[in-house]
Design goal:
Distance between the termini: 28 Å
Order of helices and strands: EEEHEEHHEHEHEEEHEEHHHHHEHEHE
CATH architecture of the largest domain: 3-Layer(aba) Sandwich
CATH topology of the largest domain: Cytidine Deaminase, domain 2
CATH class of the largest domain: Alpha Beta
CATH superfamily of the largest domain: AICAR transformylase, duplication domain
Largest sheet: 6 strands, mixed
Number of domains: 3
Strand content: 15-25%
Helix content: 25-40%
Strand order of the largest sheet: 3-8-7-6-4-5
Number of helices: 13
Amino acid sequence: MKELELKYGCNPNQKPARVYMKDGELPFEVLNGRPGFINLLDAFNSWQLVRELKEATGLPAAASFKHVSPAGAAVAVPLDATLEKMYFVEGVELSPICTAYIRARGADRMSSYGDFVALSDECDEQTAAFLAREVSDGIIAPSYSEKALEILKTKRKGTYCVIKMDTNYVPEELETKQVFGITFEQGRNNIKLDNSLFDNIVTENKNIPDSAKRDLLIAMITLKYTQSNSVCYAYGGQAIGIGAGQQSRIHCTRLAGNKADVWFLRSHPKVLNLPFKPEIRRPDRDNTIDVYISDDYLDVIGDGAWENIFTEKPEPLTREEKRAWLDKVSGVSLGSDAFFPFGDNIERAHRSGVEYIVEAGGSVRDDNVIETCNKYNIALAMCGIRLFHH
């Protein structure tokens, strides 16, 4: 098939809409549903991300995409008991690819609501069964087990979008796009991100352990397919906070850092033991947890409102308790799609437990950034690679 007609473009008024190949066949097959314009943008960006994560780490990888940026990305590092409880999979033995997606989905569950899923490996029955319980628009993977495809075809009343990607497809070296009727052309960003990112460690602390190198690779490969400006915090084999599409880098660092803080606070004992009524659905639990962690909890819940959600009224998580919990966090990795222009980014990153950073370098204020890293004993590698994505 050389062409696929779409319902409409980014918006319902943008018709006609299609994807097509000038030469050869389309390198994917729609196994179920009818993908939209944005679905396919998410699918092909996320597919590149998980393919490169698998290549760089050797581990099955998954991503959760929304509006052409990842809400989460991860590799198949086993979950401990706390993460199992955070991700609502207690006591379940998980396949590697299912583990990767549960991590990717769990990075920012509110942003992942209605996501497009990408898997580096075959979608198995367990992953499909997990997806069947989530609000999601579609999935792209290299293959599907017979049972997985059967499960996915029943999702969303049979309309769930299932795409099979040709793993042998290699795009042309030049890529084009149109803006306002004007055609742009550039070389594809096929730069390979690997351990050479850490060759130039410019701080007094030059120790970046292998686990942090893995997380920094996850952060940087994630940023390669995130709308710029962008910053990514990573920990334990997954992204935990992604700041995308901000005009100021400090705003990226704050946005991603706030998301990372929420991720860590979800492991606080008060959050893990919230007494939800059994009938409360998973998305409603996520929304409630987000409110509970926020400073607006008492205003939002109000007198008596908790009775609709909890079996008993939970004690609030105070600002002091939150700060004390976050002060225990360490070992977080941080990637940036371009240089940090000022040390204020490092100050904010430090508040979220960052100990390892990779960024391009090349700012006139690199000395201030390095000095601030030295102040907190942070190891900083300047890789010389910019990863703007638009």
